[in-house]
């Protein structure tokens, strides 16, 4: 459940942007968590309204068991997630890259809720579609153990292309910033602190 829905409170909304932050790792603690909190703090400091969606705390089946051939009822947490995405003007996804791609939990989240009628709509047999989430922007904060240059030029950055083009772009969401924090494993404490400052700055510019 989102923090707003857990508390039963509705944040006061003024002139700030409506931001939904989505933490896409199943781990309970990680650098992603710290980046997530730093970005949120930067956004709140500028008067934006921030809501939270931590996928590791949601209860849902991440497997789209029948494809699009048979309906799979959405769990309560997924229905709430769809409402929060409709509410948001700006989405922030924070996640690690594992095996060159998205964590299974995050991919399963997209499989389950970015469905026809919510994220896109096809027109008969043609390839044309309505991008039903148009008008929204996104920032991506991504951790990797692979050096960014190697991930791009040797592997072809498959996770980045999947997120920006195949998932968000297909649904009408325009990626504004894709920030890489890498390589994580050999990083020093000083390096990680600079990454947190960078994430907070990105939040302040949301």
TrEMBL record:
GO cellular component terms attached to this protein's record: cytosol
Claim: Oxidoreductase is one of the keywords in the record: yes
Keyword Oxidoreductase listed: yes
A Pfam entry, by short name: Flavodoxin_2
Keywords per UniProt: Oxidoreductase
Molecular function GO labels: NAD(P)H dehydrogenase (quinone) activity
Domain Flavodoxin-like fold: 17-198
Stated family: Belongs to the NAD(P)H dehydrogenase (quinone) family.
Protein name: NAD(P)H dehydrogenase
Organism per entry: Pseudomonas taeanensis MS-3
């Amino acid at each position: 459940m989102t923090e707003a829905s857990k508390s039963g409170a509705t944040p006061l909304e003024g002139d700030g942007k409506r931001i939904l932050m989505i933490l896409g790792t199943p781990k309970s603690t990680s650098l992603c968590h710290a980046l997530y909190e730093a970005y949120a703090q930067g956004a709140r400091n500028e008067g934006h309204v921030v809501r939270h969606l931590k996928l590791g705390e949601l209860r849902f089946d991440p497997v789209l068991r029948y494809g699009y051939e048979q309906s799979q009822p959405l769990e309560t947490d997924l229905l709430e997630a769809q409402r929060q995405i409709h509410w948001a003007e700006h989405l922030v996804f924070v996640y690690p890259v594992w095996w060159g791609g998205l964590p299974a939990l995050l991919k399963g989240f997209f499989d389950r809720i970015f469905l026809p009628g919510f994220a896109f709509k096809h027109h008969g047999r043609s390839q044309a579609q309505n991008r039903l989430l148009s008008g929204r922007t996104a920032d991506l904060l991504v951790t990797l153990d692979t050096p960014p240059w190697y991930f791009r030029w040797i592997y072809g950055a498959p996770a980045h292309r999947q997120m920006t083009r195949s998932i968000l772009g297909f649904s009408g969401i325009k990626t504004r910033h894709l920030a890489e924090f890498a390589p994580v494993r050999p990083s020093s404490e000083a390096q990680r602190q600079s990454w947190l400052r960078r994430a907070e700055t990105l939040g302040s510019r949301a």
